[in-house]
Automatic annotation (TrEMBL):
Keywords: Cell membrane, Membrane, Transmembrane, Transmembrane helix
Positions of transmembrane segments: 41-64, 116-137, 143-163, 183-204
Principal place of residence: membrane
KW Membrane (keyword) present: yes
InterPro entries: LeuE-type (IPR001123)
UniProt membrane topology term: Multi-pass membrane protein
Record flagged with keyword Glycosyltransferase: no
Domain of life: Bacteria
Annotated source species: Halomonas cibimaris
Cell location: Cell membrane
One Pfam family linked to the record: LysE
Protein name: LysE family translocator
């Protein structure tokens, strides 16, 4: 892969990673609830989910979606349901935090599970990779070049969210966030439920 093409790929992946959304909200919530460890774990496992979609894309995900649209519609529905469930959990955590701001709401295991599942449940990621990342793939591309695409997408996603978790876990910042935990959890819940509703609306519209 030419270096100029890789730079374009990296720019596209970076733009997708840093855009605000449920992934950022999730890393924020786990950092708030458990500190640096769960926040970093959430970011790393989110990158694993991103890497899976990147791998499927370089293997021909777009063609599979065209051939089996009902299967991907079912995946989208399940993903929307999971995002909505996480949103309600965050709203409930927000109410609890109003009474006890210092309570830890998350573990590394929970962060790992939710990190990868939020990536897999986010239909925006499917569309992102099929519509944009697939532009860098052509039938004659070597296996090594395809793996570079997958590794680039994973590395940039992991690097960004780990950086976010580390920055937010600084003692002064984390204490400031925990004092406002109820509002952060509620905002996270609204974001996740809003995305789930948007996905559901897109299916019936």
């Amino acid at each position: 892969m030419a270096f100029s093409l890789w730079l374009s790929l990296a720019a596209v992946c970076a733009a997708g990673a840093i855009s605000p959304g449920p992934s950022l909200a999730l890393v924020l919530r786990h950092t708030l609830g458990g500190g640096r460890g769960p926040g970093v774990v959430a970011g790393l496992f989110h990158a694993l989910g991103v890497g899976l979609y990147a791998l499927l894309t370089v293997l021909g995900l777009g063609a599979v979606m065209a051939r089996f649209p009902l299967a991907f519609e079912a995946i989208t529905v399940a993903g929307a349901g999971y995002l909505a469930w996480l949103g309600f959990k965050a709203l409930r955590a927000g109410r609890a935090a109003a009474l006890s701001p210092g309570v830890a709401y998350t573990t590394r295991r929970q962060a790992a599970r939710e990190g990868v599942l939020v990536a897999l449940a986010n239909p925006k990621l499917i569309l992102f990779f099929v519509a944009l990342l697939s532009q860098f793939v052509h039938p004659e591309m070597s296996a090594a070049a395809r793996m570079i695409i997958v590794a680039t997408a994973m590395s940039i996603d992991a690097g960004w969210y780990v950086l976010v978790a580390v920055a937010l876990s600084q003692s002064g910042v984390l204490e400031w966030l925990r004092l406002r935990a109820q509002w952060i959890n509620r905002a996270t819940g609204v974001i996740l439920i809003g995305l789930a509703l948007r996905v559901a609306w897109g299916l019936v519209a």
